[in-house]
Amino acid sequence: MTSLYDFVLEMLCDVPIKYSYNAAYERILDRRPEGRDSVTVQPDDAGLRMSLLGRFEVRAGDDVIIDEAWHHRNAKALLKLLAVQRDRSLHREQVLDAFWASLNPSAAAANLRKILFDLRAEFTARQVKAEVVTIADDLVVLSPEISVDIDEFRSCARAARFAQDRLDLYEQAIAVYRGDLLVEDRYADWTEGPRRELRDLHNDLLIELSQLYAAAGKLELAAERLQRLLEADPLNEDANRLMMRVYAEVGSRQKAHRQYKTFRAALRREIGAAPSEETETLIRDILAGKVGRA
What we know:
Elements: H1 4-12, H2 23-31, E1 37-40, E2 48-51, E3 57-60, E4 63-67, H3 73-83, E5 89-91, H4 92-100, H5 105-125, E6 131-136, E7 139-142, E8 147-148, H6 149-163, H7 167-176, H8 189-215, H9 219-232, H10 237-249, H11 253-271, H12 277-287
Parallel strand pairs: 2-8
Antiparallel strand pairs: 1-6, 2-3, 3-4, 5-7, 6-7
């Protein structure tokens, strides 16, 4: 018999995750007009999956359907833009404005139809069938049947935090994060907010996992996870403080002091700032033997 605890974990982190139907998509399915614009792809068992973390690609099972090398730039951009929306949809006018703000409405609408044609042609050529992008009721919607790695990452993070002390769930969530969101689109304004949110979540998970390892006496593993974070974000003060504590706990005040000095120098060099009073107090306590092992 499945416990409520196991049921919640399964619901929070199921790989590959299936995005639940949102109200906008259900409304489209119920009211879509004849001759609607849509892209067809394979049914649920195709394992259709989109990766946005690190390298962009769309796969059907093991086959790559679309990746960054695909030459239809706007079609790729539409898939990405819809995938980063929380409900996977945008108003038709938002899409037209995002891509063709300088064109008249009829020309912009024709370009959108061309994007849908390019997507349909690519998926059909790969023998993939079902609905990927649908336009109806003035909404452009990405199908909830496509697994997207950022949704999987968020769900696994929720599962880890719900379980609180399950190291394996934290490791699973961190493993899903294969890199920052859409690095090839790092200068696109619409990627900045989601990229920062996902990166911060990843960093927070690394700190929480390191704290769990340290509490369990697995100080080497705690240091490894913190080092991974500090390589990507050397100015993260919480991570630097925790690394100082870990070094102190293994009896290496010298390494703790070196970590402090490295952090202080990076702060001064990069942003002209100094460590917080909390950090200053910690290093004084470590050097005085009040924190860590003698």
